[in-house]
Amino acid sequence: MNWTKEQKRIIDLKNSNILVSAAAGSGKTAVMVERIISLIKSGEDIDRLLVVTFTKAAAAGMKQKIQKSLLNAYQNKEGNVKHLRKQLSLLNRSMITTIDSFCLDVVKKNFHLIDIDPNFRIGDKSELSILLQDSIDEVLEEEYEKINENENFRKLVEGFTGNRGDDELSEIIQNTYRFILSFPDPFVWLSQSLDKLHIRGEELKNSNWLKEIKSYIMLLLDGAKGYINTALEICNEPKGPRLYLDTLEKDMSIVDNLVNLLNNDMEEFMEAVKGFKAPKAPPFKEKDYPDVDIEKQIEVGGSKNNNSMRAGYKSIIASIKELLPYDLDYDKYALEINEMYGTIAALRDLIIKTDKIYKEKKNEKSIADFNDLEHFALNILRNQNEKGVFEPSEAAEYYSKKYNYIFIDEYQDSNSLQEAIIEQIKRENNLFMVGDVKQSIYRFRLADPSIFNNKYTTYTMDSEDLDNNIVNRTIDLNKNFRSRDEILKAVNFIFKNIMSKELGEIEYNEKAALNTGSEFLTDNPVELNIIYKNTSLGNQEGEADGSEKIKSEAEIEIESMETAELEALFAAKRIKELIKEETHIPGKTKGRKIEYKDIVILLRSVVNWAGIFEERFNKEDIPFYYDGGKGYYDALEVRILVNLLKLIDNIRQDIPLLSVMRSPIGNFTTEELLEIRLKYPKEKHFIDALNKYILCAKEEEESFPLADKLKNFKEKIYDWSYRSRYSHLHDLIWDILMESDYYNFAGALPNGRMRQANLRMLADLAYDFEKTSMKGLFKFLRYIEKIDKGYDDRGQAKTLGENDNVVRLMSIHKSKGLEFPVVILCGLNKQFNLQDTKNKILLHKDYGIAPMYVNVNERLERETLARTAIKMKIKKENISEEMRVLYVAMTRAIDRLIMAGAVSNLEQKERNWRRGRSQYFVYKGLSYMDWICSCLFEKINFDYFNEIMAQGQWKNWNLKLITRADLSLNIRDEINFKESNIRAMNKFKDKKNSPYFEEIGRRLGFKYPYMSSVNVPTKLSVTELKNLKDKEYAKLRYKIPTLVDIFEYNEVKDKLILNKEITGAEIGTLLHFVMEHLDLKDNLKKSGIINTIKQMENKKLLTEAESKIAISSYAEKIEEFFQSKIGKRIIDSSAVYREAPFVLRKKANDISGSLNKDDLILVQGIIDCYFIEDGEAVIVDYKTDKIDETKEIEFQINNLKNEYKDQIELYKEAVEKITSKKVKECYLYLFSIGKEVKI
């Protein structure tokens, strides 16, 4: 392979810590693999390398690539062949894995150092969520009991929870707890953050909080200047309102003065803001200025236009006053922060208690989560010395010596805890870190891109003439070998204009820009499709500064659904066009036809959109695959089955009951349900009305079809309920699906395959649930409830796989690390989610914890200066993250990048875009569309914008304005198709029956003639037949497992004892076992029998406890047996057969007249004893049934004879068939009274 100069340098550089800033498509994985292969060829063993990847899939992929490279090197004899062969054998043992898997290995090998169960397992995500919630509930319940004694806790509850429960407080505890676990010392960080709330006014002046607020004010002033500059440009345009030029110059001078004051004296700055008064603009009369374009005049400074440029800049200055009230009274700011100390201290105490209980619960169940793994590993790898300073432990030194090189992939997504772990085991010069801070998109998982940035700024840029003593080096890889030049130029154009150190956390300069590394035969510019939703052209409601209104979550969701339908329609239409075209791959001399699997649709968030896209693509016959999403538990078939499980657990639940009764499982009509309720309207629960209805029908002794139907339904529910006590959950679910025929019914519905797959998924979920520490139907239902509330919702089952020829839809996050010939990026105008800045308590790794100021006594709530600062910082970081997400999305494309977004009120949007891409307008942008179009259409007025869109080309981009009318043609075709189908169906009703009508009816009305045989098992035991009542054959399919006696150790008596009375069946089993092993020619006195039992114990045939029971209870009775007449006849016989098994084939109607005569049943059994006497057989059956000697014995004996008569008849038939000899006599021997009874 031809490596670039930078790539070759990375592969060969030794004895250094290397940080590689590898841009998208720069071949970082290939370079890392080659560096590893290079080290191996030079004599390194692969098990002396630690390679940490971000995902298990990445680890598996890297192992595969290393294996392939090693095989090539081995086959081509590149280096020491014996050494290469050894590396291939070591590869499976090598530590090429995720950080979590590495931590797991550390913990498993060093569990004794931190006192944990070595057999712990990683808990299921939902199981852990339930445990955490239970822990929080326990802590809150305990605190509520003494709320009057804890003033701080009372303030926390009253100030930070709603009126309907403590869900908000519980969420605050969970979010804070999960946040702090990303730090090496979570509770140290929490305490230090709490201490920051103890601040004086003087300290506040120099705090990071105030610095952040100053930075934000500077951003606002930049926005004010942006408005003025845009206004000046409009004034200088032809027909511009030049009368405002002097006023605007004065406006600019005021803002420049404010900037200067902000940099030098905060107090004077606030005085100037407080006294701000914008210069008065000269009056405008249209007749006095006939050459001025009235629209431009209004846009610059129309007195009645609140969205004018001058109004925008004035509103920005006014907002600064609201930002810092009290005339910059630092003491008052500090007092408000101090007053919240007690409340947050109460929160800290709750979190500490929650952590303690949560850990106890996990220890009880021997489970851990991934956070635990990392903290366990860190505790193993470091110790605290006498001065309280952490230093590497002996275990860390072991790993440090073991791993000669440490490789970390996706380093930009590390957090401080993971960094601390690596710090313990690294050497001075053996780190290799590769990543791209522009692709750090996992802040929601608490990734910290500043770790990468800090190293990048402190490390020295590598060069060949650099002093060898410089250990820490950084190398850039900016050549992209994935995408065509047009795509890379578009990416560079956008991000050079919007990404900066302040917003984006990296300066997108020439060093960061992407350089083309591949050649394509054709040109394919990037496409931008603006879908105009055709709403009113009037001014869109906006804020005073002219920016768009930030919508509520509900408003966003409603608008989003409509937008998704339009964009799905556009995507389907564009895909149909693409399938007819060719794609080109770098390095290939010829293009090829685009296939469905070449195309991916990327969305920032797929919530509520994936289903709409799937529905549209199904209508358009475009094969579609989406892996993920939500909504599984909302699927109708799943909801009905879950409701049925709720009934089985507890039938006194009206909503699940009515749901199941109305479903095909119950098959009740609405009229039938109304009849029940109307008859008993006063009953609180529907089940009570149902029971009374059944009872009433029974008392009147009349046949009520509905009552019979209700009775059967109830019996079915109770039967499943009974079986739920002993059946495995997944077996129970399958039994329900089969017995109710609901699985087959679901398969007959539209999308039947998917519906059946959903039902199978629920059975699989039950199977996985039973592997956790939780058991039982009730806990399973709670488990589902927690998942359904959002802990781990899953998408519906898939009937197509991602490797089929399908169009894939995925979130941008899931696409990271992948590449596609054609990328369609939709949802460009979807508003950014900035909801996390609205939480009452905000958290930031550097700025600590900051609550709202809440005075519960006066019912006051307002911002604190600390929370204001953190809110601004979080918003900047969120915007930076959104930029990086857009960068990832645009760099996935190889050949085609097609972007689309639906826009309302296009004219207002274009006014915002023309203001350009200053930091302020980037900050105020609400979507990717705003950022992209601000770069493309800066200083472009609306008329010129329309001209550009009509031409379709601008700055090497293909542009297209699509209206609803352009897309509605497809919808009209669809409506016409539906209407024609309805007409055809109506006509069909009037047609005469076909000649096959009767035959079709006969086939569809077919009833299985052997229904009585359906539930009959193919094999029955003699005991089952004895216990069987007529028509109970179905129950034989479900065998309740035998409960084994548990022997408990009695410390006082130093022996094992049974923890309950032994049953008759268990006595019988033990007696039969002893009788089988007695030697009939040996000593059959009590002493000989005891000796035989002892020998059985020594041979481990009996336990010590069983041996003691056999001796104490049976030895004497067995002696009596062999002294009886029948016992002596057995001893004298020359042929005695004990515990003789048999299988008989019987006709079903011989067993029960109600069964089909053509069915066969195998009857199996074991005969206790039969012997041959005078050429004929005699059967003896041992019985341990208790005989009450205080009552009439003969009556009890006759009952036993009748009970066992059929069983003995089967034995008799079996012996005669086995031996071909006649059975002359059959006996029961009753051990309880020592008597033989002839049958």
Keywords:
1239 residues, alpha/beta, 52% helix
Any low-confidence stretches, pLDDT <50, length ≥5? 535-547, 1034-1061
Main sheet characteristics: 8 strands, mixed
For the biggest β-sheet, the strand order reads 18-19-17-20-25-14-27-26
Please tally the β strands and state the result: 35
Radius of gyration: 40 Å
In percent, how much strand structure appears in the residues? 5-15%
- The best one-word shape is elongated
Helix count, DSSP H or I runs of 4 or more residues: 50
Indicate the percent of residues in helices. 40-55%
Q: Report, as a whole number of angstroms, the end-to-end distance.
A: 92 Å
The assigned structural class equals: alpha/beta
Overall average residue pLDDT: 87
